[in-house]
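Workshop exercise sheet. Pairs work together: one partner reads the sequence aloud, the other fills in the structure field after running the prediction. Swap roles for the next sheet.
Pair: D.N. / O.F.
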Amino acid sequence: MQLKAKGINFKYKDDKYILKDIDFTIDSGEVVGLIAPSGFGKTTLAKILAGYEKPQSGTVTIDGKKLSKKGYSPVQLIFQHPEKSVNPKWKMDKILKEAFEPSKELLEDMGIKKEWLNRWPSELSGGELQRFCVVRALSPETKFLIADEMTTMLDAITQAQIWNVVLEHVKKYNIGLIVISHEKALVNRICDRIVDLTEFKELSSNIE
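Structure field:
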C-alpha cells in the first residue's frame, strides 16, 4: 500500500505558496522523516496528507484512490498539542472509544491508568493526554500514521515510552509512519529515509 501526494501546491488566501510542486510517497511499513525549519510547511503537508487541508492543486491518494471524506481516515495525524485534539466536554473514555475500543494490553503498554478514563481532559497532564491521542490513532483501520512533533513537549521518559509503543505497533501491523521532528538524533535513529522540505530532496538515513 502506498500513500502518495502529487503536485501539491498550497497557500493561505493571498499569501505566497507555502508548498510548491511537492511530490511525496511513503509505503506501508516504511518510516520516513520529514525535516525543515519552522515555516516551511511541514505541518501543512501533514494536514493535507491526512485530509485536514485541501491544496490549491495536486492530489493525495492511497493506491491510486483519493481519500474518502466519510468514516475513519486511514491516515491519522497526531499533533504536538494534545489539548487541541480532544473534545473538552467529553470524558477520556468517550474520547478514546470514539474511533475504536483499544485492547487492555495497548492501554497498559502506553501507561494509561484505569482511573484516567473517568477524567476530563483538563484533569490530565500534557503527557497523559498525549498517550490517549496516540492510542486513539492506532485503530486497526489506520494504514499511515503522521507524528508531528508528537513528543516534543514531553519529558524524556514519557517520550521513550510513547515512541517504543508506536514503533512496535507500526512494525507489527505494517503501518507507514511519517516522523516530523526537529530532533535529529530521533530522526536518524528510527527513520528508513529522510526528506528535507527546504530543498525538497531526499537525504540519506542520517543528517548532521
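Discussion prompt: The mean pLDDT is 90. What would you look at next?
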